[in-house]
Amino acid sequence: MLSGGVGGARFVRGVVDVAGADATTVIGNVGDDVEVLGLHVSPDLDSILYALAGLADERRGWGREGETWRALESAAALGGESWFALGDLDLGLHLVRTQALRAGEPLSAVTARLAAALGVGTRLLPATDDRLRTWLETPAGPFPFQEWFVARRHRDEVDAVRFEGGAAARPAPGTLEALARADLILLAPSNPYVSLGPILAVQALHDALAARRVPCVAVSPLIGGRAVRGPADRMLRRLAGGTSPRQVTDCYKGLVDAIVVDEADADDLDGLGEVRPIVTRTLMVDVESRRRLAEAALRAGSVVGAAADARPEERAAFGGQGAVPA
Ligand code: GDP
Ligand code: CA
């Protein structure tokens, strides 16, 4: 599964709940990564880790439950950077990761170690171990992702998104193998431009998805044409010309076979072409609703896979192996 941070993490929990930790591999976004107070922060990987470890603050929607802020208060009092909220518990993780990276350990290896230490059985892989950073082109100039998102509260309209290091970024160890071995590929209801975009900017991952032999199912991050939170709807309106399911799938051209959309978007399914719409309730507020959405996405995979199996000429075009979902 490909996932961004908070929205993705909710869905990842549902999928792990239904399919099992062993059966799930998550490829996470690193375009949001940022250096703060000398520390390497990977907000999207951490959102997934905290969610799967049961440590996330669900009411606030990000960071850790029971967090305190004394280190950041101290840094601020000393004139240090304090624009990016790093809690005391969170800082502990960033210290461990930063030390390991400085010692030459790849991000994928550190992430695996952190997951194991937190008792997370799901495999979590960064899209790349190389440096890849998301930049936003706005009327006020270009901004690195976190400066736009956090410091400027994503108030600037976005004219373009670009991925520094994207062209040269190699897929992290395990990512291509996971895609090659998957029975089903899922795109979490994450921001298409700034959460899944940076993952797909790794050319080899994009190509692996384009050459898939199994179904790929996306879940729309929009409900009734609006983002549950964050700027996805504004970005789609400005960059793709609308907030219908078709504008979401247009972000994943040639990469998805089905899209799970909310009941509130059921009347707005024109222009999807070959992409099959699956309508259900997609708001994740608790264990039950996360589970239901995960089940709908897994079912969509079976339906699309069975349809592909029924068309032998298509199987031959893919090399004769057929698309067999789990
Ligand atoms: P971030 O990296 O923390 O910004 O998180 P993501 O990009 O993974 O997720 C943000 C997206 O998740 C937003 O566009 C939201 O609209 C979407 N989202 C959040 N909660 C839900 C939900 O319950 N259902 C659906 N369908 N989308 C959601
Ligand atoms: Ca993010």
First-last Cα distance = 14 Å
Strands in their spatial order, largest beta sheet: 9-10-13-14
The ligands found in this model are: guanosine-5'-diphosphate, calcium ion
Please give the count of helices.
13
Brief summary:
With 326 residues, this protein is α/β, with parallel strands linked by helices.
Annotate the secondary structure layout.
Layout: E1 2-3, H1 6-19, E2 25-28, E3 34-36, E4 39-41, H2 43-53, H3 70-77, H4 88-102, H5 107-117, E5 123-126, E6 133-138, E7 141-144, H6 145-151, E8 160-164, H7 175-181, E9 185-187, H8 192-200, H9 203-210, E10 216-219, E11 222-223, E12 226-227, H10 232-240, H11 245-250, E13 258-262, E14 276-280, H12 287-309, H13 312-317
Bound molecules: guanosine-5'-diphosphate and calcium ion.
Guanosine-5'-diphosphate (GDP) binds next to helix 1 and helix 2.
What do you see in this structure?
- The chain is of the alpha/beta class and 326 residues long.
- Helices cover 41% and strands 16% of the residues.
- It has 13 helices and 14 strands.
- The protein has helices at residues 6-19, 43-53, 70-77, 88-102, 107-117, 145-151, 175-181, 192-200, 203-210, 232-240, 245-250, 287-309, 312-317; strands at 2-3, 25-28, 34-36, 39-41, 123-126, 133-138, 141-144, 160-164, 185-187, 216-219, 222-223, 226-227, 258-262, 276-280.
- Strands 9-10-13-14 form a 4-stranded parallel β-sheet, with helices on one face. It has a 3-stranded parallel β-sheet with strand order 1-2-5, sandwiched between helices.
- Helix 1 links the parallel strand 1 (2-3) and strand 2 (25-28).
- Helix 4 (88-102) packs across helix 5 (107-117).
- The longest helix is centred in the last third of the chain and has 23 residues, at 287-309.
- It is globular and about 65 Å long.
- The protein starts with a strand and ends in a 9-residue tail after the last helix.
- The relative contact order is 0.13.
- Guanosine-5'-diphosphate (GDP) is lined by residues 3-8, 10, 44, 47, 188-191, 195, 220-221, 223, 227-230, 232, 282-284.
